[in-house]
């Protein structure tokens, strides 16, 4: 079995929010803090879409955060969750 390749998303230049209509966008969320007796926990949300062999990863307002190459057979939702977790870990 070949080792899993790391994602190397391309940085995307700042631009106007993307019109989310042309592609089929999917909402994802990841847990960033587990719930406890004193805290409800926390999540982060984003959108992703597939364009040919690339995954576009966007804020909920439509601003593209990154674009990454999808490998054949790779689960786009899993890639999007990894990208979102990476975004969150950079903010901590």
Keywords:
about 90 residues, alpha+beta
SSE layout and pairing:
Blueprint: E1 10-11, E2 25-33, E3 42-51, E4 54-58, E5 64-69, H1 76-91
Antiparallel strand pairs: 1-5, 2-3, 3-4, 4-5
Helix content: 10-25%
By DSSP, the count of extended strands is 5
Largest sheet: 5 strands, antiparallel
Mean pLDDT: 80
Strand content: 25-35%
Shape: elongated
**How large is the radius of gyration?**
14 Å
How is the largest sheet built, in terms of strand order? 1-5-4-3-2
Backbone structural class: alpha+beta
Number of helices: 1
Secondary-structure element order, N to C: EEEEEH
* Low-confidence blocks of residues: none
What distance separates the N and C termini?
34 Å
Describe it.
- It is a single chain.
- With 92 residues, this protein is an alpha+beta fold.
- The protein has a domain at 51-92.
- Helices cover 17% and strands 35% of the residues.
- It has 1 helix and 5 strands.
- It has one helix at residues 76-91, and strands at 10-11, 25-33, 42-51, 54-58, 64-69.
- Strands 1-5-4-3-2 form a 5-stranded antiparallel beta sheet, with helices on one face.
- The N and C termini lie far apart (34 Å).
- The model has no long low-confidence stretch (mean pLDDT 80).
């Amino acid at each position: 079995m070949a080792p899993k390749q790391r994602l190397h998303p391309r940085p995307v230049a700042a631009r106007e929010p993307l019109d989310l209509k042309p592609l089929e966008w999917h909402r994802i969320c990841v847990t960033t803090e587990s719930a406890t007796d004193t805290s409800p926990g926390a999540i982060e949300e984003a959108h992703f879409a597939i364009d040919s062999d690339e995954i576009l990863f966007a804020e909920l307002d439509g601003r593209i955060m990154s674009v990454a190459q999808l490998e054949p057979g790779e689960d786009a939702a899993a890639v999007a969750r990894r990208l979102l977790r990476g975004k969150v870990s950079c903010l901590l």
